[in-house]
Specification:
It is built from 5 helices and 11 strands; from the N terminus they run βββαββαβαββαββαβ. The protein is α+β, with helices and mostly antiparallel strands.
Length: 202
Amino acid sequence: MSADFYNTIEQSSTAEFKDRGSRFIAFAFAINNTEDFKTIRTQLKKEHPKANHHCFAYRLGVDETNFRVSDDGEPSGSAGRPILGQIDSNQLTNVLIVVVRYFGGTLLGVPGLINAYKTSAALALQQTTIIQKPVLVNYRLQFDYMQMNDVMKFIKQYDCIISKQELQLFCLMEIGVPKINAATFLFKLNELVGIEINNSKY
């Protein structure tokens, strides 16, 4: 994974693994932030209220520090870490995998649980396509409405993504600029008079 691009999944997917009566249903999602994670987890708990465990792992961003795992009542290290291991072995980020377990009456032991959570996560990832996306650098732009056409021309030319915009006499726009294009994009914008550019952590 280069510094300018990252690998993630194209669309959500699901897969099921069974072991000695227990069902492990894995759901893989592409996410952009922790709010996406919270929304999905809440929805899955509503859809599977009788499941014994809702274990998960996610990784966000490219600095390798933004991740979370949960065993949700399973023995420590037997669920969340094996799920994260599948995300990492595929060199993915901005990915969430939730594995819902329905207990089948037979204890699997820690090795059995590790295998079940690892396998179900791997199966879910096999059901979707891995794609490469550009790493984005976030900026907040402020400019006069009369400059809209010039700004939009550069946004399209350099494949930027608009996440928020307020278009009045004075415009505010929050955008993600592909890191590989950022220097050239900023140089072009700075040629325009009166545009305020701030690095944004929104």
